[in-house]
Design a protein that fits this description.
homodimer, 204 residues, alpha/beta, Rossmann fold, seven-stranded mixed beta sheet, DNA-binding
Chain lengths: 204, 204
DNA sequence: TCGTGTGAAGCACTTCACAGCT
DNA sequence: AGCTGTGAAGTGCTTCACACGA
């Protein structure tokens, strides 16, 4: 039972598991059983055991799983062990809100660069970071930044994505309401808040 | 082949379909085939035909599907035909960014109320809307608001969710990095931007 | 000829149930 | 006694392939 065959659905659940585990760790909880953990992540216990079994057995029968070990395992699989630098493109309302949000630390991310086309913003600071001109996106690779958060208007999203791809980025979190065309080596995750809202009335 | 058995995966894809269809409609495109549509939504064409077949056949063989008919159908299924009023809780950076975002119109949502605990904000306007004191959340039901967007700090998310449930809300879009405990009748969708970012390095 | 609509086949994830360890 | 780890069974979504209509 080895790494390569972890189902993609399992991978999707891992960040949620990690968040809950860090929460438990902060509460100084040492062990957690699949049953108890189930309450925290809203996933059934056999599913949790199955998920954990994909990356090798290390639970203690009769006791549960060691929280810190789990955290290490999941960080390892998601490649979150070292701090990952991320770039933010777009320092509008949404971009600013995101850059000031400290939840990224949980997953080992650090916003290391911010870009915006507006001359008013270039050179100013948001938190600790100086806003740069978008032509400098090309320097991301040499600065060791491989992940970008795209918070620009839909009209310029594709164009900006192209720049990011050219700069050697390999992951984009797209917050614009549109699909992006990118080469296969680049992973895109799109979050459109309005769109997510769209399924709510169905379930009412 | 009737409504109740539409797979939940299909439902999840509908808002994305709707967004693309509205885009096509704005470009005055009258018909679209599953193959062409596939390019727009990044879903394979047999899947698209299958999805559409769940809500009854109405494509034209050799031609494709009529864009406006599809829009009507999907709006009908997702219960988005009438304008849905939504409340926004939390007028911080993120809340403000959301309230000024006009993408909600696409899905027939209208932010109709904003709440915040801060005395500095209560009574001020964000766009057209006056920020209200959170104790007024209880009036949401009588104001015909059934959906809420929760943009408050994680610490107060559960507490606020409880208030919303008490006010008769039946859908919550939770932007805080935590799970919410709610009765089964209430549908919660959680979006944690940092968490979504967490899977990107895995695919690099 | 082109594209829909759909039963049937295929596939992947989930759930079960229980042996085995502590 | 309690909980893990896992083959096997179950489930539901996706893909196929082709008849049929325009």
């Amino acid at each position: 039972m080895r790494y390569s065959k972890i189902p993609s659905e399992t991978i999707r659940r891992l960040p949620g598991y990690l968040r809950a585990l860090i929460f438990l760790d902060e509460k100084s909880r040492e062990y957690v059983s699949s049953k108890v953990f189930s309450e925290y992540v809203h996933v059934k216990s056999p599913q949790i055991r199955k998920d954990f079994s994909y990356f090798g057995a290390f639970g203690t029968k009769g006791v549960g799983y060691k929280v810190t070990t789990l955290i290490e395992q999941i960080r390892g699989i998601l490649k979150l062990k070292e701090v990952q630098k991320a770039a933010l493109i777009g320092a509008g309302k949404l971009g600013t809100a995101i850059s000031l949000y400290d939840g990224f630390k949980t997953y080992g991310f650090e916003i290391a660069a911010i870009f915006d086309i507006s001359n008013d913003k270039i050179g100013t600071r948001i938190g600790e970071i100086v806003v740069e001109d978008p032509w400098k996106i090309a320097t991301l690779c040499e600065r060791n930044i491989r992940v970008a958060i795209l918070a620009v208007p839909a009209e310029s999203a594709q164009e900006t994505a192209d720049k990011l791809v050219g700069a050697g980025i390999n992951g984009i979190l797209n917050l614009s309401p549109c699909y992006l065309a990118v080469p296969k080596r680049v992973k895109v995750i799109t979050i459109d808040i309005a769109m997510e809202l769209g399924v709510l009335p169905y379930y009412s």
